[in-house]
Design a protein that fits this description.
This protein is an alpha+beta fold. 29% of the residues lie in helices and 42% in strands. The longest helix is centred in the last third of the chain and has 14 residues, at 63-76. It is globular, with a radius of gyration of 13 Å.
């Protein structure tokens, strides 16, 4: 059951595939104490990595700081990242 103060964001990343991407992305989410509640991940032809995650964000977490850190990490590892506030 969803709590009244639960907040969700769908985070989608796309870019060239390589080992360790899931670990690097999920470590940012863990660092902020957030929870991945659902995800869909695929490596498409031509080695394109696509990941979509539904992330539960506790009320005490600053969403802007999470977004800033995720954007920085994704930029460093060559992924584009998009946020959809659900």
């Amino acid at each position: 059951m969803q709590k009244e103060k639960d907040r969700y964001v769908v985070i989608t990343t796309i870019g060239p595939n390589r080992p360790g991407l899931m670990s690097e992305i999920s470590s940012v989410i863990s660092e902020f104490g957030c929870n991945i509640e659902d995800l869909d991940q695929v490596v498409m032809k031509r080695n394109i990595f696509v990941l979509s995650m539904l992330v539960n964000i506790p009320i005490n977490v600053n969403i802007d700081k999470l977004r800033e850190k995720m954007s920085k990490i994704c930029n460093e590892i060559g992924l584009e990242v998009f946020f959809y506030y659900a």
